[in-house]
Write a structure and sequence with these properties.
Structural class: mainly beta
Number of strands: 11
Helix content: under 10%
Order of helices and strands: EEEEEEEEEEE
Distance between the termini: 40 Å
Strand content: over 45%
Radius of gyration: 14 Å
Length: 127
C-alpha cells in the first residue's frame, strides 16, 4: 500500500511559478512510476506529466510541454512538478498518482492504470 500526499498548491498570478510536491510512503518508491494529473472545473481528469522509477524517462502533455518539469528524489520518496509560465487555463486540482512497474525505465500515462492517488492540491492562476 502506498499513500501519497500532495502539497505546494496555491494562488499565483499568470506568468508565475509554483512547485508541487508529492510525498509517498513505503520503502520501494523507485519501483513506482509516478504521474501528475489535473482536473479543471467542469472537465475530466487529464494527464499532465509522468516519470519513470529511475527518473531518467519523462513524458508531458502537449499543453504543458516546455513550461512544466517533473522530477523525483527517490531518497526522499518525493516527486515534484515545477510549473513555470503559468496560465489561467492551468487552474485545476492537481493529483499525483503511482503504479508499480517491473522496470525502472517504464512510464505510464494512462489514468486507468494508476493504482494509488493523492488527495489533490488546488492550483489557481489569476489573470
Amino acid at each position: 500500500q502506498v499513500q501519497l500526499v500532495e502539497s505546494g498548491g496555491g494562488l499565483v498570478q499568470a506568468g508565475g511559478s509554483l512547485r508541487l510536491s508529492c510525498a509517498a510512503s513505503g520503502r520501494t518508491f523507485s519501483s513506482y512510476a509516478m504521474d501528475w494529473f489535473r482536473r479543471a472545473p467542469g472537465k475530466e481528469r487529464e494527464f499532465v506529466a509522468a516519470i519513470s522509477g529511475s527518473g531518467r524517462t519523462t513524458s508531458y502533455a502537449d499543453s504543458v510541454k516546455g513550461r512544466f518539469t517533473i522530477s523525483r528524489d527517490n531518497a526522499k520518496n518525493t516527486v515534484y512538478l515545477q510549473m513555470n509560465s503559468l496560465k489561467p487555463e492551468d487552474t485545476a486540482v492537481y493529483y499525483c498518482a503511482a503504479v508499480q512497474v517491473p522496470l525502472s525505465t517504464i512510464i505510464v500515462v494512462n489514468l486507468d492504470k494508476m493504482n494509488y492517488w493523492g488527495q489533490g492540491t488546488q492550483v489557481t492562476v489569476d489573470s
